């Protein structure tokens, strides 16, 4: 029997090339597992409840991003968290058995309180924000998923999910598997200016970038400041262009040699990278154009929701029964 995965992303804006490896990992996994991918709009509200987020557009955008990279709705259920009411119901019922201290000691809670709250000016001293990882546990457990592909930063959340599953099973009887985190390798791509890639720094390359936009962004990339002339020997380890070559250019060894030997100028080296990035993104653009046709995304999300519900409704019936609800 195939294992089952659940994973999710918050719809907070269109994705960039730094997100690509995560989705590509899902694309690979969807052939090996029964796959459920949720656009977690309720999670976006835990920190963004005052931001006036336009979920209609945000959901459509992220769904297009996923499908254009290769998430296949014939293999995976793709749906919106808030359309599957059982996530919220399980969150509520699990809250009954969740010790407050377990939530308070989740490391991301204190970190985010500091970053988004004290430094970011957001008021997130809310019940909903404290419950973020519990909602995430409900997302996973309502599918009885055994595997959760996530980034390293989410490990404490999956750990909490395992503890909640264990506690539920201990109190009411065995219902939930204890899911394992599956940590995808995420190469750390800098932004074009060398800082962390982030939309708020305006230093990203969007997944939907056109050939022209790619060229522009690559032109902005910071190179070795010690290299004034074309034949000066370069230091690839300090060059943003090279960091991208390392990930997206098969002939990277040659690039390194040419740079260190002063055999190629930064302009030509950038042109080479822009071509490779264009090759990378161009199949996504083609697929995206197909999914963008009117009504297509809506249909995918509807079908995904039906598939999701066929699992979550069975789980919730069992959970209610175990907890004595009639
Ligand atoms: N918290 C995750 C993130 O920020 C998103 C998420 C919500 C998630 N629910 C999930 C991931 C369930 C995996 C499983 O990346």
Describe the structure.
By secondary structure, the chain is mainly alpha-helical. The chain has 2 domains: about 5-190 and about 295-325, Rossmann fold (3-Layer(aba) Sandwich), CATH 3.40.50.620; about 200-285, Tyrosyl-Transfer RNA Synthetase, CATH 1.10.240. The protein is built from 14 helices and 5 strands. It has helices at about 20-30, 40-50, 55-70, 85-95, 100-105, 105-120, 125-130, 130-140, 155-170, 210-220, 240-250, 250-260, 265-290, 295-320; strands at about 5-10, 35-40, 75-80, 145-150, 180-185. A 3-stranded parallel sheet has the order 1-2-3. Strands 4-5 form a two-stranded parallel sheet. α8 (about 130-140) crosses α9 (about 155-170). The chain binds tryptophan. Tryptophan (TRP) binds near residues 40, 136 and 140.
Q: Report the end-to-end length measured between terminal Cα atoms.
A: 32 Å
In DSSP terms (H or I, runs of 4 or more residues), the helix count works out at 14
List segments where confidence is low: pLDDT < 50 over at least 5 consecutive residues: none
Shape: elongated
Q: Give the helices and strands as they follow along the chain.
A: EHEHHEHHHHHEHEHHHHH
Report the helical percentage. Answer: 40-55%
**Main β-sheet description:** 3 strands, parallel
Ligand names:
tryptophan
Q: How many strands?
A: 5
Sheet/helix structural class: mainly alpha
Taking all residues together, what is the mean pLDDT? 96
The CATH first-level class of the largest domain comes to: Alpha Beta
CATH architecture descriptor name of the largest domain: 3-Layer(aba) Sandwich
Family: Belongs to the class-I aminoacyl-tRNA synthetase family.
GO molecular function, one term: ATP binding
InterPro entries: aa-tRNA-synth_I_CS, aa-tRNA-synth_Ic, Rossmann-like_a/b/a_fold, Trp-tRNA-ligase, Trp-tRNA_synthetase
EC number: 6.1.1.2
């Amino acid at each position: 029997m195939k294992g089952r995965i659940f994973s999710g992303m918050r719809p907070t804006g269109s994705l960039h090339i730094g997100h690509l490896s995560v989705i590509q990992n899902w694309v690979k996994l969807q052939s090996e597992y029964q796959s459920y991918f949720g656009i977690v709009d309720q999670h976006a509200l835990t920190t963004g409840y005052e931001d006036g987020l336009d979920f209609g557009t945000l959901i459509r955008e992220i769904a297009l991003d996923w499908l254009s990279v290769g998430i296949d709705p014939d293999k995976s259920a793709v749906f919106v968290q808030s359309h599957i009411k059982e996530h919220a119901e399980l969150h509520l019922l699990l809250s009954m058995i969740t010790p407050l201290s377990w939530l308070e000691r989740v490391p991301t809670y204190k970190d985010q309180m500091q970053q988004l709250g004290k430094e970011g000016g957001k008021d997130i001293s809310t019940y909903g924000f404290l419950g973020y990882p519990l909602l995430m546990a409900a997302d996973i457990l309502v599918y009885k998923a055994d595997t959760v592909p996530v980034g390293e930063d989410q490990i404490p959340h999956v750990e909490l999910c395992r503890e909640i599953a264990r506690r539920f099973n201990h109190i009411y009887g065995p219902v939930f598997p204890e899911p394992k985190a599956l940590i995808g390798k995420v190469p750390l791509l800098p932004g074009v200016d060398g800082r962390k890639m982030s939309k708020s720094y305006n230093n990203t390359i969007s997944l939907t970038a056109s050939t022209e936009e790619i060229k522009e962004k690559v032109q902005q990339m910071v190179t070795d400041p010690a290299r004034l002339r074309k034949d000066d020997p370069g230091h690839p380890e300090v060059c943003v262009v090279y960091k991208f070559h390392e990930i997206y250019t098969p002939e990277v060894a040659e690039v390194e040699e040419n740079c260190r030997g002063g055999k190629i100028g930064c302009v030509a080296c950038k042109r080479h990278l822009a071509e490779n990035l264009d090759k990378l993104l161009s199949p996504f653009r083609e697929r995206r154009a197909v999914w963008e046709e009117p009504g297509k995304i809506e249909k995918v999300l509807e079908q995904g929701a039906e598939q999701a519900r066929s699992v979550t409704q069975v789980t919730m019936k069992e959970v209610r029964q175990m907890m004595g609800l009639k």
